[in-house]
Write a structure and sequence with these properties.
By secondary structure, the protein is of the alpha/beta class. Helix content is 28%, strand content 26%. Residues 191-217 are annotated as: Disordered.
Length: 217
Amino acid sequence: MAQSPKAEFEAIYQGAHIPWDIGEPQPALAELVNAGWCVGVVLDAGCGTGELGLAVARRGHTVTGLDVSPRAIELARRKAAERDLEARFEATDITELTGYDDAFDTVVDSGLLHVLDPTAQERYLGVLRRVCRPGGRVAVLCFADVPGARTPGGRGLTEARLRELFTDGWEIEAFERAGVLGIIPEGLGEQSEWPKDDRGRTPMTGWRLRARRRKTD
């Protein structure tokens, strides 16, 4: 029997190798954070071990990080304590999230959307629409499905699919190609042979989308 998504990710976070945990926020989203793009109360959706959410908290924002993996949340809380940063981290399935209505001015998503199946993607967008205040903003970094893309597991999204997801209740403000860094172990065939940067991280093919929640539907 195949593992549930929760069990799959919990097993990865319990292990020694977390391919997407590069020890810092993904540069494509760190750029936005450092430029002051985040405003108000912030949700880090699919926060993992908390690097992005903690970078936002360091700038003085109230931050909530949510992830399906209890182990990831444990690691994020540990990082927050070690860095003396205030952030709330909770284990939950964000596609089934209740509460938090109109709670957030900004949502950042570093690699969550592309791991969800199509039905879960639609549930997730429904949650974002509910928890993001009218006029609030969302930034998503995900793998891209484009010719010649370098992405693991065929998890990339097409431009058409992303635009479809962010139609009802959203205004897309920016849509652009962006790199996604990961640490790919040896023994994965072609993926292990992909180029690496000077820190052993593999640049992969992604999208960075920024959208704003419409004030009226």
